[in-house]
Write a structure and sequence with these properties.
Largest sheet: 9 strands, mixed
CATH topology: Metallo-beta-lactamase, Chain A
Structural class: alpha/beta
Radius of gyration: 21 Å
Order of helices and strands: HEEEHEHHEHEEEEEHEHEHEEEEE
Helix content: 10-25%
Strand order of the largest sheet: 6-5-4-3-2-1-15-16-17
CATH architecture: 4-Layer Sandwich
């Protein structure tokens, strides 16, 4: 009898000791961390936030088709994060590698709120856009809400303040307040971009001392408009490299002004990760680590980040679709970034917010 009681006591103690560890593997209402998942959609974009209060925000949704590859990767990430619904689904702009699975996701899980920059009737670069937009409208039941510069997503408040603000939308930008940008003079205007890339919604997240910037596919001249001559964003801890790392985006006037500690590039094997963008990142004064979803197979190893910071190598065929995950401490003062859910966490301390 004593032996049985002893074994039962051990089991109870083990449960008490290891239950907190089980919860620590993902953000939720118990541990009050913020998690950001950069899902591999092979050169598109799909970024999932799970807030300290357990709310979910998906920024973009990757390509459709391909046997529902991207939809299923998003669904798996949601399941791994313990989410049974999407609270907020955001479209940065109207290119199919960014909103291609919103409708498909809505047929699989509840989506409470749809957000976008407003749905145009036509799109210059996509003759089939009205048909594609019709599927999105149906999924949103014609109740998607338009995001404008300065808007904030309605997220629950926790112990550490959390805000997600719209920094750009439909070619508008935040008022040009803040300190002078010492890198403003490096901006050399490019040809005007009439595509929907330049109209991208940018989300600017702040959580305690932690900050995160995701600009969709925003392009060169609008990037400069946001941060010249003054920089309203200040320094950013974690920057999602814009437009898959293409060189029509990632204006040094923006990238060097926000001075990120860590970057994540949502590129594909042959899409994005441009040599010029890699060079811009290497010149960021405070940069401690640059992560990539894919190795750029067109560049030499020395022209991109080290292999330990790259989630996937080789071509799309046979790709495992490993994601990159950032986890921010409940007080917003430190964070980790890792390749894959089982990868080594790289630890970083936040600069005090100004």
């Amino acid at each position: 009898m004593r032996s049985l009681r002893f074994r039962l006591l051990c089991l109870v103690l083990a449960g008490g000791l290891f239950a907190p560890f089980a919860h620590s593997t993902r953000a939720d209402e118990i541990n009050h961390r913020l998690d950001i998942y950069f899902i591999d959609v092979e050169g598109g974009a799909a970024t999932l936030l799970v807030t300290p209060e357990g709310e979910s925000v998906l920024m973009d949704s990757g390509y459709p088709d391909n046997g529902y590859r991207d939809r299923d990767r998003i669904l798996k990430t949601l399941r791994d994060a313990g989410r049974k619904q999407l609270d907020h689904a955001v479209v940065s702009h109207w290119h199919l590698d960014h909103f291609g699975n919103h409708a498909a996701l809505a047929s699989e899980i509840p989506i409470r709120n749809f957000w976008d920059r407003g749905i145009p009737d036509t799109l210059m670069e996509d003759a089939q856009f009205p048909e594609k937009a019709a599927r999105y409208r149906a999924a949103a039941q014609n109740r998607s809400r338009t995001l404008k510069v300065g808007d904030t997503l309605p997220l629950k408040a926790g112990g550490t303040p959390l805000t997600v603000k719209v920094a750009t939308a439909s070619r508008d930008v935040l008022p040009n307040s803040g300190p002078a940008n010492p890198h403003a003079a490096v901006h050399k205007p490019q040809a005007d971009d009439p595509s929907d890339n330049a109209a991208s919604v940018s989300l600017w997240l702040k959580f305690g001392d932690f900050s995160f910037l995701c600009c969709g596919d925003l392009t060169w001249n609008v990037e400069a408009k946001l941060v010249t001559p003054n920089n309203p964003l200040g320094q950013i801890e974690l920057f999602m490299v814009t437009h898959h790392g293409l060189n029509v985006s990632n204006n040094p006037a923006l990238v060097w002004a926000i001075d990120p500690r860590v970057t994540v590039m949502c590129n594909g094997p042959t899409k994005g990760g441009a040599k010029e963008t890699q060079e811009t990142l290497r010149k960021v004064k405070s940069l401690q680590a640059a992560f990539q979803l894919h190795r750029n197979v067109q560049l030499a190893d020395g022209e991109q980040t080290p292999a330990e910071f790259i989630a996937n190598g080789g071509q799309t065929e046979g790709c495992q679709g490993r994601l990159i995950k950032a986890s921010i401490a409940p007080d917003g003062k430190s964070y980790t970034v890792q390749v894959g859910l089982d990868g080594k966490p790289h630890a970083f301390n936040c600069r005090p917010a100004k």
